[in-house]
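User: Hi! I have a protein structure encoded as tokens and I'd like to know what sequence might fold into it. I'm fairly new to this, so please keep things simple.
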């Protein structure tokens, strides 16, 4: 009875996720764009209301899925970063940090907002790209570069290397491709974000290198004079071994 109930709730949860997948993907991208705009230029009242409405929709979506999930702790462990991304706007609305001067107030939670928003956008992007792995990684690198640049610009404005968004974008792009630059973040928040961008850059660099190596090896294997054996050569070799095995067995039987 319990197993059947768990199965039915999992089935209902999957149906709800499929139903809400499209709208949540769209709102996830809008949420990230609004965050980038806020970090660079600030948001007018109308866009602030739009951000608030999207935040409420995300909360409703999270609550519905949490109620339907048969295993609450497992669901929360899987979506803890999403839960944090929904908590941060509440802290800003109720001004809890007004009474706690922790790393210059709101600046101290900017990294959490950026990372949690990127996490939601990564899920949206992964759901959109499906099996297009390389395309997903390429688009993700672009999204992380622009969002990271907005975060670095907001956190490091007095720094000469981050006087404008263009400079911050150039610095972030160099960090993502592991090239480095002459400027270094000076605030603790900026250093933390730079560290996360570096980790992402090294991960992407390894994946892109492996993908390009696989591509060129595959191209070489298609050539007749290539030193690398292709899939067709391996299949032909297997067929010859099979024929040779049959011939040996026939000789033994005689």
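Assistant: Happy to help. Inverse folding works backwards from shape to sequence: for each of the 254 positions I chose a residue that suits the local structure. Here it is:
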């Amino acid at each position: 009875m319990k197993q059947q109930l768990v199965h039915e709730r999992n089935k209902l949860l999957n149906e709800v996720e499929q139903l809400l997948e499209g709208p949540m993907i769209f709102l996830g991208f809008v949420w990230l764009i609004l965050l980038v705009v806020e970090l660079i230029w600030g948001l007018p009242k109308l866009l602030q209301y739009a951000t608030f409405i999207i935040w409420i929709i995300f909360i409703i979506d999270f609550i519905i899925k949490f109620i339907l999930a048969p295993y609450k702790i497992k669901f929360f462990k899987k979506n803890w970063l999403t839960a944090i991304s929904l908590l941060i706007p509440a802290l800003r609305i109720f001004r809890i940090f007004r009474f706690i001067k922790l790393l210059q107030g709101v600046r101290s939670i900017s990294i959490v907002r950026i990372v949690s928003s990127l996490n939601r956008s990564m899920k949206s992007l992964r759901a959109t790209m499906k099996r297009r792995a390389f395309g997903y990684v390429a688009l993700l690198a672009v999204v992380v570069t622009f969002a990271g640049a907005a975060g670095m610009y907001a956190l490091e404005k007095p720094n000469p290397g981050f006087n404008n968004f263009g400079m911050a974008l150039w610095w972030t792009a160099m960090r993502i491709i592991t090239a480095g630059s002459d400027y270094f973040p000076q605030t603790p928040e900026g250093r933390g974000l730079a560290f996360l961008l570096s980790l992402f850059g090294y991960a992407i660099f390894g994946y892109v290198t492996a993908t390009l190596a696989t591509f060129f090896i595959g191209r070489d294997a298609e050539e007749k004079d290539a030193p690398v054996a292709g899939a067709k050569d391996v299949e032909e070799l297997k067929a010859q071994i099979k024929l040779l095995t049959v011939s040996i067995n026939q000789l033994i039987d005689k």
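A useful reference point when you look it over: The chain has two domains: 1-126, 131-225. Feel free to ask if any position seems puzzling.
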